[in-house]
Design goal:
Blueprint (H helix, E strand, L loop, with lengths): L22 H18 L2 H17 L3 H18 L2 H17 L3 H18 L2 H18 L2 H18 L2 H17 L3 H18 L2 H19 L2 H18 L2 H17 L3 H17 L3 H17 L4 H18 L4 H11 L11
Helix pairs in contact: 1-2, 2-3, 2-4, 3-4, 4-5, 4-6, 5-6, 6-7, 6-8, 7-8, 8-9, 8-10, 9-10, 10-11, 10-12, 11-12, 12-13, 12-14, 13-14, 14-15, 15-16
């Protein structure tokens, strides 16, 4: 039903690159091809190879380089009159904006990318851009608005037999179910995503699916050991492919699992590691979530209650600033969980 996963963002002379190629290899090949295209005066090829450079930088956590690369790719594509390449560059820029916590900008860039993709007749970049919009809305906590879009994209991906996009859509819908308490449904969808990714040789998608399964096993079943095993398996993939962002989120989830198991010293150390990784790539959402876990772990280890409350209040403002609708709810739950009185008067 599904073919082998492929990476449509590796274009032009770089189509031979695999979805599982190490990002350092992608960056080297993309940079070499970009320079060759510039020497040859081939703007279209320069725009397409520049896209791979932008995506490699982004996934490696090199956000300033990624920002310069996607903008250069867009300018070159516009000069070449290549609407499809313009759409792909905007998709990359929108994805980077979401990674950096600029969610309204992400939405605008991805909407433009989807429109240009439709105009160019490129159904793949249109689908990826709509998927990015759906993910942006999900991260913001606007589940009602984006659930239908997720399901539409899942149906389209299944119809085309596009494994990588099917895996992404399944994981997005599963995350919504997990966040709204439908753990069994979420587990089944993460499990299907993991199976499809494994058969299609989509190692990145498989690593994210394992992370989702580990989360459910921990929160629903209290099976921390199995959850940690799955996270270790996913971590190995992240390291082999140099997936900096995915690795940081893997570590943040490991902290969650350890915290739920009452292993607060270990959780503290892992959250601190994830926090440093997120800060290194200027990823504000991950930074805030890792910091929340760290604050909770330190509180469990006897940290001063007033200092904990002050940190939680600062985190609530931070999460509001990023635009996460459920961020304040997470902080309020932390107040209650730790027996603190929140500014809203909740807690004990």
């Amino acid at each position: 039903m599904y073919g082998k996963a492929f990476a449509p963002e590796y274009q032009g002379a770089l189509t031979s690159l695999s979805v599982n190629s190490s990002l350092t290899d992608v960056l080297a090949a993309g940079t070499e091809q970009l320079r060759a295209a510039e020497r040859a005066g081939s703007r279209q090829e320069a725009a397409r190879s520049g896209l791979a450079v932008a995506e490699a930088h982004r996934r490696l956590g090199q956000v300033d380089d990624a920002d310069r690369a996607w903008k250069a790719s867009y300018r070159t594509a516009r000069e070449a009159g290549d609407t499809g390449a313009m759409a792909w560059a905007l998709w990359s820029g929108g994805t980077l904006a979401r990674q950096r916590g600029a969610l309204p900008l992400a939405w605008r860039l991805l909407r433009l990318a989807a429109d240009l993709g439709e105009r160019a007749g490129d159904v793949v970049v249109r689908g990826y851009s709509l998927a990015g919009m759906a993910e942006t809305g999900r991260i913001q906590g606007d589940y009602e608005a984006v659930t239908a879009l997720h399901e539409q994209l899942l149906a389209e991906a299944r119809r085309r037999g596009e494994a990588r996009h099917t895996v992404w859509a399944l994981e997005g819908i599963a995350q919504i179910h997990r966040n709204t308490g439908s753990y069994d449904t979420a587990y089944a969808m993460f499990e299907e995503a993991a199976d499809i990714a494994a058969r299609a040789d989509d190692r990145r998608g498989h690593a994210w699916a394992l992370r989702g399964l580990a989360d459910i096993l921990s929160v629903r079943d209290g099976d921390s050991e199995r959850a940690l095993e799955l996270l270790s398996e996913a971590e190995a993939t992240c390291r082999e492919m140099n997936l900096a962002g995915a690795l940081a989120y893997n570590h943040k989830m490991r902290g969650n699992v350890l915290y739920r198991a009452g292993r607060y010293e270990q959780a503290r150390d892992v959250y601190a590691q994830a926090l440093a990784e997120f800060e290194g790539m200027e990823e504000p959402r991950g930074t805030a979530l890792a910091r929340l876990g760290l604050v909770k772990s330190l509180a469990r280890l006897g940290r001063d209650r007033a200092e904990t409350a002050a940190d939680l209040e600062a985190l609530a403002r931070n999460l509001d600033g990023i635009g996460l609708r459920h961020g304040r709810e997470m902080v309020l739950r932390a107040y209650e969980e730790l027996g603190l009185v929140s500014p809203e008067g909740t807690g004990r």
